[in-house]
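Hi R.,

Here's the chain you asked about this morning:
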Amino acid sequence: MEKLRYFLYEIVSVSMGLAILAFFGTLSFLPMEIMLWGEGQTAYWTLIILVFSAVIAFTLLSFCKKKYHAILMRMADVATVIFAILLINSYLVFTQDLFEPWIIQAAWFFRYNGLFIGLFLGCMMVKTITGLSYLITKVNNSNNLNETSQKSAKESNSNIIAFSIIAISFTIYSAEMLFFRYSSLFMTLLAIFIIESSLIVYSVLILLNTSHYNHLRFQVYESDIELPKTNVAAGELSEGKDIKNVEALESGKLARISSKVRKAGSDPSTFWYLFIPLLVVFIWGVVTAILYPYNIILNFTFTLGVNTIFYPMPLVQVLSLFMILILIFIVAFNAWGGRMNRRLGKYYDSRLKKAFAVSGFGAIDAMRFMGLFLVISQILYFFEYPIYLPRVISFYLMFGVLGAFIYFIAGRKSYLKKILYICAVLLLIWNFNLTYIDGITNGIDWSALWGGTYEITFPFLYLHSWRNFMMVGIPTGIIFTDLLYNLGFTHTDGKDAPNRAVFLGVVPFVLAMLTMPGNYLVSNPGAESTPSFDPFFYYFCLILNVLLIIGLAFNYLVTEILIPVFIEKKSIIKIKKKGNPSSTNPGSSNQKPRKNTGKGPPPRKKFLALAIAGIMVLTFVGGVGIYATHSQTYNRPIICYNSGNYYVWVQDSSERVSKNVKIAESSPRIDAVELYLAKNEYGAVQLVWYPHQPVQSLTYNISDFHHQNGSYTIEASNCTLRYVDFVIEDEFPDILRPFTVRNLELKENNIFWFAIKTPYEVVEGLYRGNVTFTFDGGQEIVNVDVNVWNFTIPHMRHLRTNIGGRSRDFERIDNYLYHRINDYGVSISKANTLTQLNTQEVYTCWLDTSTNTWTFNWTWWDTMIQYKLDRGMNGFVIQCPLGMGRDPPIEDATWMLRLKNWLVDVANHFEPLGWLNYSYYYFIDEFQMFIPDGYTREEYFDRLEILLHEMKNATTKIKIMTTTPPSAELEDLYDYIDIYCPISNDRDKARWDERLAADCEFWFYSCVGPMAPWPNAHLYNRLYEIRIELWQVWLYNIHGFLFWSSTAYYHGDYGLAFNGWGDGWFIWEFGGILYDSIRWENFLEGQEDYEYLWLLNATLQYLTENPGVIPANELSSYKAEFDTIVNSVVGEKWVYCDHVSTLYSGRDRIGAILNDLGSVVNLTALGEAQWFPPYKPGA
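And the predicted structure, written out as tokens:
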């Protein structure tokens, strides 16, 4: 065979393609919380286009002569560079106000830009499949050598190419993951663009070399392989059924197609076996693409125990996922089955025996690969935390390169390869045992979760060790190299190269993609309480070992040890005895290819020079375009600039700033930070320092803010400056820490949160102040202009927002009230004795068990509630201290009597105080989702109806809230429910509006769900989504919002995997000191957004009821503009703006309108008028 230097471009380009496909496959479900739910997704365009690309590549390779494959590969590479440019530009545009950490920024981009990603990866897949087919053909087409030389050259080159592809692709994949993890997707894409551009330039540049040019011209362009029409080689097809199949195709309607396939150097029979199922998948893809715009939702229902789970999935999500799964199974079994047919087909005379052997052993061979996928998927299972995955995958791959090298060293010694494979399997099995020991030794300590240590770390130790990376990586490298060697370069003469190449090209993306949801379906080991931890983890690891033994060891034993001994050796002996020499040379052919003399015309330098120039111009223009887009999109106002030392730029308060994001230094310079605020409004801005050189001992001073006419002042005490601390491996900005002096981190973003609360009685106008930063060797003054509008955020709250937690600590209480948020109130706790009730203030009631009556001491409880009500609280929870659990004892008459007596006493106490409007009984949480054992859903709801009836029979004065939707199955409970509070993604507009029309109060809540794209408050959600939730409350015309907790500290030790990313965790506490988070501050800003909306609506209603205050056409214009603003920011369900700038524009415009109308309407009186939810108990 030719020297491998002639194939350097193909080897590197194919390796690059495999690595990029695997990289994007990993990103397609990373993290699952953003990528899993299908509503609004465009990521499925990627799957559709990849299917199209695989079918197109196979078809082109089957019909185009081999001499065109090198050109086809270069054309696909050029297209890849073009779409890489478009992809990078679309990324910059989409993320221009999405400076989230690397993993979040990339996931949101992937979710909503699947078309651009699909086009880029589609070209990459065509290039990769073409290159693989080219290499497989060339390695297995050495007819110009004698039999001994051919076998030796083929094995040597096959080993080198298999090792090279695995080593290079593993290295590139590892580099991509590390670059992505420690930089950003933008920098990773930029690196891909540069490398791809360099590759295509190199691929043309080498043709200026005469020997390379002649190699390409003579060996490829002028030497094609044709499948003989009648004399089919024994190694290719048997003399039985396969030849008849070919002859049937020759004589049938498809004769011309088969003839073209043969002339292109492929096998018609092999072609049809794959083309027909691929055509079906292609049509499936076309149908999916056509249905995409219609947004058809399928509502799936499945039973989990006695619980019924409802899961809506877009039709295109179902179709595209099934399509890609079917594709991988089709190409896998076709490739491995075809290999087995060429391997064993010649040894069977009986069609039945041949079919049975080929299909059976082919399936075993394919399952060897599927077994490896299961193993790799479950290895990554232990690293379900997505923050760790890039690093872990990279380290595995690094050692995988070493494993590939070890396999290469084994060379042509087949027995050494078998020993290596067996050792690799044993190492993986042993590694799982070590993982098990690590799990039971270092797993979660459930009892420690409530300690409030808050260290968000992965608990296992061995999984982070280099020993683990080595014991997984080296075996993986050995096994992957063995699979590539066997499938790509054994038992083939190159005529089925397109079939094998399609499989090898599709595998990286699909399997990398499937590992993520595969991991997600099983909870992390150790994430459950101790009693259920050990057995679960033990059996899980045991199953993994069984999968390893069956999927890898057993299948390898059958296909690579037993078949050679019991089938191939014996059959070869029989064939030799019959005197069939052709069986010893399965790759032979009657065709005599043109001899390569090494001579030819000189390279067409003008043409090649033009090609190189064109590619370089394309690369240059693309690079300039990327730079220009970056300069336009990644610009932020720079408030301070010291060339070569540091610069300070400004970011709004509802967009995170990751450590690594870099703005264009050509960003506009500004003289002052500008804020537009109402009176009594909180406003914040982020001042981001990026030091090139050390900035040490930084301190600050905030001045007073003086009115432009000099008569009024906002004192500095209304302002704060805190630095933003990062959590979860220092990646996610969240904690706001006060400071006096700080040393800045070099060459990363240091974020300072400046906030101001305008006084209630402040005079409107422009106020100017500054923040003076002083540090070793320098000083910077940041000027801040605060424009105060002519209206006030009222003390009266018009939204009932309850976020869980009850506290007796006044610092925590005041923190809630400052953020215009209600906690759950104060527990009405039951004392054990009457003496305890009257001596310990935390107790409010005592039950006399002899009479089943209650005694209350409301003194302390009333004081606490009144303190909160006086400061704006407008909602609190009450619950009977008897408790209900999931299955309340309704048959227990004594328990029921005590509950009813308690309700009556509480109602009678609240009524004269006027507290019935504020209070509500929080009924059994999410009872429609969790059905106790022993009941059907209908039986359980019937029991709850009895309980609710008895509670309302006791008193109608107390509101009852249920965290359930007004669904059809709960219609019998309608008469007893006063406040509905379903989870936000249970949105059913018709039913919600019907309950609102019946004068029910209505809220919604979010918690660990819903996941993206629904707005929520987790770390993986875009920060401004917190405000979006409260805009949705307005859009839905409902009255409240609920979140279950702000201080769920027991999630801390287990971090991301336990229950969401910061779920129920908005206030931090260290050493008894409370620290706000930037998410907590955005809850405050969302509350104020709601007041903007409420106040403008109330103003427009007032103007409607009082005609003549402003012209009618002006009023109509305001109303239309108001609707337009709201609809631009938020829509139904998961629909809302993709850019926070849209929210700010809407909010600012509403503020400007209110500022104008404040001169003709008393907005303060409107805002402070007494407000209650629409339903009054007992009415």
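The chain has 32 helices and 26 strands.

Let me know if you need anything else.
M.
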